Task: structure prediction
Amino acid sequence: MPTTLSRRTFLGAAATVAGGSLLPHSAYAAPAIRRSRVAGFAAVSSANGLRAVERAVRLMQEGTDTLDAAVEGVKIQELDPNDMSVGYGGLPNEDGVVQLDASCMHGPSRRAGAVAALEGIKTPSEIARLVLKHTNHIMLVGEGAKRFALSYGYAEEDLLTPRSRERWLRWRANRGAADDWLDVATDEPTGMRPTGTINCNVINEAGDLSSITTTSGLAWKIPGRAGDSPIVGAGQYCDNEIGAAGSTGRGESNILVCGGFLTVEHMRRGMAPTDACLETLRRVVAMTPPRLLGEDGQTDFQLTFYAVNKKGEIGAASLYPSRYAGHDGTTASIHDTASLYKGPR
Ligand code: ASP
Result:
């Protein structure tokens, strides 16, 4: 069953403090750089991660390893049947099957683990950590990932809840005018693709970092589709000398820029976390094909990056204004992201 990382198995890494920002914020930037008030402890997460950052920081303050703390944090959403974007209760693929993606990195040991298109297991974050901890591999997918989880005693369960099944049935019924499914009344905008994910990046007072991202991915996706969340370097990335970063939003657009890695690299060059996230978003826009741009030239999708640096500063930025959860070692709270574009999408 779930195991914790042995702290003895990981080498501590020397702290190298990143410098300040090189670039100014965009016109729509929120003052999102926050300094940890209690030496070192900090966490940043997507807005659904307020409970995650609270739990992760509390556990780190009690001495729990950074990755273990982050996993325990995101598991709150994975196990929450009311969060339809992550784990149990997550929205399924077009066949009505929930396929989960997750990846993680442990800064001190420079190790990574990931699972993609995992079915029947409620907590892919734990399975990604098992890959990290017990194998010579980094990513397991599909049936192999499930068998791997079962070998550790995890139970195979139906991940659809009555609510998520109901939403999928409504989507299938209304999918096309010319198909054999009779349309049903719905207040969900047609063509809307519900998304959602939790990313969480943490640092402890020793300056050790970890990162994790877990998701049920894009709703109604083609079976087998893996998004950015299980891709180390896209959905999340951690360098114990520099910082950690991760993402939520349109996964394919993140994969194209290796956004988790790129954001950490921007911090390596001295950018503060929010500036690093904004700079990565500029690259995303530059890589976006015309079919995904509106008449105003802006993207027709949302993408958000979250980052923490070696100093315990956190920040987040999105294409369109959004929110994120942060913990400065004392208090967990929700903040506005900086954004490239003004106003709602
Ligand atoms: N990034 C996730 C994916 O593409 C979805 C999301 O965060 O909304 O699978």
